[in-house]
Amino acid sequence: MIRVEHLSKTFAAKKNSGLKFPGFKKATTPNLITALDDVSFTLNDGEITGLLGLNGAGKSTLMRLIYGLLQPSAGDVWVNQHQVSKNPNAARQQLGVLPDDTGLYKRLTARENIRYFGELQGLQGDAMEKSINQLIDWLGMVNIAERRAEGFSLGERMKTALARAIVHQPQHILLDEPTNGLDVITTRAVRRLLHELKMQGRCVIFSSHLMHEVSGLCDRIIVISHGKILADGNLETILDAGKSHNLEEAFVNLVQPQQELHHA
Amino acid sequence: MRNSFNLTELLNKIAIVFRKEWRDSLRDSKSLRMTLLMPVYFVGVFVASSLFIIHMSNQSKATNNEPIKLAVVGAEQLPSLIDWLQERGVQVDAVGDDAYQKVETGELGYALVIPKDAREKFATGESIELALVFDATNNKLQGGIHFVRQQIWSWNGRMGSLRLLSRGISPGIANPVYIRDLNIASDEKMGFFVMGSLPMLLILTAFMASVGFSADMTAGERERRSLESLLITPASSTALVLGKWCNSFSLTLMVSLVEVILLVAAFAYVPFKELGLRVDVSPLELAGVFVVLASLALLATSLQFLISLFARSFKDAQTYMGLMIFIPMVPLFYTLFNPSAYADWFRWVPVLGHQVLIKDLLLGGTITATHFAQVWLVSGVLACALLAYTIQQLRKPKIVYGV
Question: pLDDT digits over B154-186, tens only?
């Protein structure tokens, strides 16, 4: 269970850093950019939650606050009983995270990459090897497991990174655009894995721009724009809120007024 | 109990990180080759410059030893001058009257022509006109001509003094000053410079050996976007930093060891004695040098870590590291140009203290255990402070995301 309570995050605006967090709402204080504004929700175990939002809506910031590499300006994140700001390492032990655009150690093989993170998570011996083999099997990585990551294709990199993120079988799994740029077969493998994780009673949250993927996979959808939650619920709730019969249309309907408000 | 468990846990994690980084470094064969090439290159330069100076000094000795030949016309006219010249090592060859033509054609380098009435004039105390025939465009003969001329002048001075004495006048009246040449062998000084540059090469090695690897493990890892994933693991910042730092430290030790071993070989085979220097550096003293370098590596690698952690990219890190190299250069240059400068507080200054101790080890100064303790204490305290600060900063958003 991940509990997010009244979470806010503001950044001091730098003159040339517009690239990193573009489009954020300017708060009343002129030099602050609000990336997240009073966000609250609880993610339950055994559920897949999809995070929908335009580029720069605050999805990555929200993820980073959950795994504690950014400190919230206000509010708190709880991973089960651990408060992330107080006890980040205990919280991280129960998290499996795939950040966006993550890199591998290219001089290590896929298996060594996964094993290194398993060891850092405190796994050892047979339990670890078993877990690694299982993931290699699930993600169809048998033919690349002993190859060095140098020269991996995007899909091979993503699968290795995903296996690395969840090798310790965490209760909570955060994935930032896990199927971004993957081919159909690999995307299917990832989806199958997410479904498998859900069946095991784990709490999964992932961000995506693919509407059909979110509508097909998620038990719950959170639409976020300019640091605020616009809609939160199952597919029907979102469709109702967006007054449409397909998710893409509903999403655009939800986000569009916000966009215009901010650009006005 | 809990504390000891945490310590084992920490050491275990450090070992995991170190093992991974070590494997990663060993597989980076290109960087590793370049790193190991550095001691070979430095020792090579040192040996080559030593051999060059030895060769030069041998050559100048050889030319000094070769007797100066002087062709003389009418040698029988002034036997006392000829004796004087021969005593000074000039080989006198009597030649006929055609000496002038022979010099003109190049058959003779130069010749001294003593006039026929010289004996008579010498006996009566008159001035004699001696002619020194030479071709001024021939530079090779300048040294010999200069020497002969100087010898003739000093014989001239002597004869003049004797004549004044015989008339009851002090020679001091005719010779207000006289010059005594004191030649300090410049070869020895060059040898001292070569030996003086050795601590600099050693210190630079310790500072530079793992620069690339340190930058790769911090700034490079962020650039390749694996740092964020690494920091999301529950491994403590202490374990991550120390594990990575152990890798840099081990690599620096390895490179320093290679350099010291190469030096042992160099000292065994290069004939430093010909430089007139006391250069009997034993392997034991070089082992001492390695101990000093190890303490310096402690300091250098932790400095590398701090600098590359704050660099925005790998390229940035390498630029900063380039500037970092100037830190040891400052005291090194100072002492290179003032080789005799020394004060007790030098030993408490990082790098300078190391240099003083290495120099003492190489050139045979007094060495006590306290001197080693001093450099290790200074390096250790600084390294701990630098690493502690790095550990504290590692998971800051500014480091991970640059915000």
Answer: 888 888 888 888 888 887 877 777 776 655 545
CB within 8 Å: A89 and B234: yes
Tally of CA atoms within 13 A in the half-sphere of A250 that contains its CB:
26
Query: What CA–CA distance (Å, rounded) separates B156 from A71?
Result: 95
Highest mean pLDDT among A6-20, A22-36, B239-253, B302-316: B239-253
Reported pTM: 0.79
- Degrees, nearest 5: CA angle A27-A221-A104: 80
**Domain boundaries, position A90:** 2-94+204-263
Contact criterion met (CB < 8 Å) for A67 and B16? no
Residues of B in contact with A64 (CB under 8 A): 401
Structure tokens, A88 = 């980040």
Give the up-direction half-sphere exposure of residue B312: CA atoms within 13 A in the CB hemisphere. Answer: 2
- The CATH number linked to A244 is 3.40.50.300
pLDDT tens by residue, B73-125? 888 888 888 888 888 888 888 888 888 888 888 788 888 888 888 888 888 88
Is A165 inside any structural domain? Answer: no
Hey, what domains does chain B have and what are their CATH numbers?
2-59+186-400 (no CATH), 67-174 (3.40.190)
Contact (CB<8Å) A117/B233? yes
Asked if residues A99 and A207 have their Cβ atoms less than 8 Å apart, the reply is no
How many structural domains is chain A composed of? 1
Residue A61 located in a structural domain? yes
Could you give the residue ranges of the DSSP H alpha helices within B237-394?
237-269, 283-310, 314-324, 326-337, 352-363, 369-393
What tokens appear for A250 in the block? 């509903």
